[in-house]
Amino acid sequence: MQYLLAGLGNPGSQYERTRHNAGFMALDAAGRKWGADWKAWQNLGAYAKVFVAGHDVFLIKPSTYMNESGRAVSSLARFYKIPPQNCLVCFDDVSLEVGRLRIRKNGSAGGQKGMKSVIEQLGTQDIPRLRVGVGPKPEKFDLANFVLSNFPKSELPALEGALDRAVEALEVYFTQGIEKAMNQFN
């Protein structure tokens, strides 16, 4: 069976360690463990094909910026004929504390514009997702400025722990299914 695993974020070194790039960070951690060899995908992002638990898994990091992430995800999914229910999307979530993960089978974008773009491009909310906590947003703080800010040193241990657990959660997803991953990591 084939899967697509997308990490959402913004391209460029200025965004590399920002909260909004937690999806990229999770995908990079998984890619390192699985030996990903990244290549360009149709001027829409970087992709790699890895083999996880007997499955071909296509990884993609869109270079279209967060709000247009769906263009890259849908392009790769359509090319390889991967149905939306086999496309798992990793992204940041300001409603979860740093270090927390939440896996879901489907649902709305919850205000996350990258996930909104993926839902629009794939034409369904039936897309599994792994949300990586980057919040909470402080009161009286602009949301855009908050998600585009770097993690302070005090939050880095929780972030690194979350990224390690995200890779474990993805491996459970591919070996034992989403229900088991939800029960173990939510």
Please write out the topology:
Blueprint: E1 2-7, H1 22-34, E2 39-41, E3 45-52, E4 55-62, H2 69-79, E5 87-97, E6 101-104, H3 113-122, E7 129-135, H4 143-147, H5 156-176, H6 178-185
Parallel strand pairs: 1-4, 1-5, 5-7
Antiparallel strand pairs: 2-3, 3-4, 6-7
Helix pairs in contact: 1-5, 2-3, 5-6
Can you walk me through this structure?
The chain has 186 residues and is α/β, with parallel strands linked by helices. Helix content is 37%, strand content 25%. Strand 3 and strand 4 (55-62) form a beta hairpin. Helix 1 crosses helix 5 (156-176), helix 2 runs parallel beside helix 3 (113-122) and helix 5 packs antiparallel against helix 6 (178-185). The radius of gyration is 15 Å and the shape is globular. The protein starts with a strand and ends with a helix.
Named CATH topology: Rossmann fold
The CATH homologous superfamily is named Peptidyl-tRNA hydrolase
Between the first and last Cα atoms, what is the distance in angstroms? 25 Å
Q: Beta fraction of the residues? A: 25-35%
Task: Write down the overall mean pLDDT.
Answer: 96
Q: Which stretches of 5+ consecutive residues score pLDDT under 50?
A: none
Q: Which structural category do the helix and sheet elements fall into?
A: alpha/beta
> What is the helix tally?
6
CATH class: Alpha Beta
What is the helix fraction of residues, given as a range?
25-40%
Report the C-alpha radius of gyration, rounded. Answer: 15 Å
The topology string of helices and strands comes to EHEEEHEEHEHHH
